[in-house]
């Protein structure tokens, strides 16, 4: 009798542990929100340089050094601080030449180049800075970009707008499916970027190189996961 009761208890126990456990999980929806805030730039980065050619490598570098020093001196006189000047690329390479009469190419002179990144914190002198650099020997201009010295406020606005955009998209889709939007499960930022905007202002200094600062767009992108309430 005791053995029978023990066996019955074991069977009941096994039956209890093997019973399925049911759990309802809420559906989710993942949406990406984007937003761009327009802002006026208050500084610029300019990439310029000097390229020289000579018969010998030493001569090419000597000429290049003298020309770049003149450019840097003029930039300093225009109000650019030493901390806002940074060498970004320095090269010395042979000029290889080959024509139909040659079996192998040969070196005919050398080319030296020195690129400088200039940060201009006062946009009112930007045109004059470019003009001065070119007059003093800069013969390469590789680009000009505008920025904000403190973009935190614009970035914050862009993030908030991006989250609102994601919420509106999610609510629209969930409502169309006959459900309701639930609470937020997670939020992640996908990274932002700064882009130039097509709106331009007047040139800053008509006597120098005409440059329009325009506006920049500070963007944010977020991914938000919501619960779906059936």
Q: Regarding quaternary structure, how should these chains be classified? A: single chain
Structural class: alpha+beta
| CATH topology assignment of the largest domain | Alpha-Beta Plaits
Radius of gyration: 33 Å
Arithmetic mean of pLDDT: 82
Q: What is the terminal-to-terminal distance?
A: 54 Å
CATH class of the largest domain: Alpha Beta
**CATH fourth-tier homologous superfamily of the largest domain:** Protein of unknown function (DUF541), domain 2
Largest sheet, strands/sense/barrel: 4 strands, antiparallel
Portion in helices = 25-40%
Overall number of structural domains: 2
Shape: elongated
In DSSP terms (H or I, runs of 4 or more residues), the helix count works out at: 4
Please describe what this structure looks like.
This protein is α+β, with helices and mostly antiparallel strands. It has helices at 2-17, 57-77, 126-135, 152-176, and strands at 27-39, 43-54, 85-97, 106-120, 140-147, 180-189, 193-197, 215-229. Strands 1, 6, 7 and 8 form a 4-stranded antiparallel β-sheet that branches. It has a 4-stranded antiparallel β-sheet with strand order 3-4-2-5. It is elongated.
Features:
230 residues; alpha+beta; Translation Initiation Factor IF3; Alpha-Beta Plaits; four-stranded antiparallel sheet; 8 strands; elongated
Write the layout of secondary structure elements.
Layout: H1 2-17, E1 27-39, E2 43-54, H2 57-77, E3 85-97, E4 106-120, H3 126-135, E5 140-147, H4 152-176, E6 180-189, E7 193-197, E8 215-229
Write a compact overview of the structure shown.
The protein is α+β, with helices and mostly antiparallel strands. The protein has helices at residues 2-17, 57-77, 126-135, 152-176; strands at residues 27-39, 43-54, 85-97, 106-120, 140-147, 180-189, 193-197, 215-229. It has four helices and eight strands.
